[in-house]
Amino acid sequence: MRYAVYLNIAYRPEIRDPEGDAIRRELLERRGVQADVRAGKCLALVLEAADEAEAREGAVKLAWELRLGNPNVHVVEVVRVAHA
Amino acid sequence: MRYAVYLNIAYRPEIRDPEGDAIRRELLERRGVQADVRAGKCLALVLEAADEAEAREGAVKLAWELRLGNPNVHVVEVVRVAHA
């Protein structure tokens, strides 16, 4: 089966996120909207896997193996998995 | 209610995505994995809304209003909505 896995590679919650902070300030100052904002990299991978769990784990493993995130500061989070 | 909305701001499908292409090649050459890859910006917004539909539409509208994407080349896609 082919699955689409959406990954978010973002700063760990305890690490400052200047980009998210800038967007948060803009939302407040320009739109009066109070929102928390965190910015990250979204990767949409379409890959072959036996089931959803394998797709999910495989995508996260590949992201770390390719060093798409730095384990010291980033998390790799599965945001969505769907049939592709 | 507070909702967490995950947006993906990515190139339209018909626009070349050099970052996604580079990751796709790496996956194939270094891991033998055939996958389609598209790279984008992930924004996780936590905001107040009456319901899930309002949270979803509000987040997309704000992203365009703040010009976080360029309508000529980007899509703004809701990847996930959850209670926060």
Q: How would you describe this structure to a colleague?
A:
- Two copies of one chain form a homodimer.
- The first copy, chain A, is α+β, with helices and mostly antiparallel strands and 84 residues long.
- Chain A has a three-stranded antiparallel sheet with strand order 2-1-3.
- The longest helix of chain A has 14 residues.
Output the strand order for the largest sheet of chain A: 2-1-3
Largest sheet of chain A: 3 strands, antiparallel
Ends apart, CA distance between termini of chain A: 8 Å
SSE string of chain A: EHEHE
Task: Give a quick set of tags describing it.
homodimer, 84 residues, 3-stranded antiparallel β-sheet, alpha+beta, 33% helix
What secondary-structure arrangement, pairings included, does this model have?
2 copies of one chain form a homodimer.
Chain A: E1 2-11, H1 18-31, E2 36-48, H2 52-65, E3 74-83
Antiparallel strand pairs in A: 1-2, 1-3
What's this entry about, in short?
2 copies of one chain form a homodimer. With 84 residues, chain A is of the alpha+beta class.
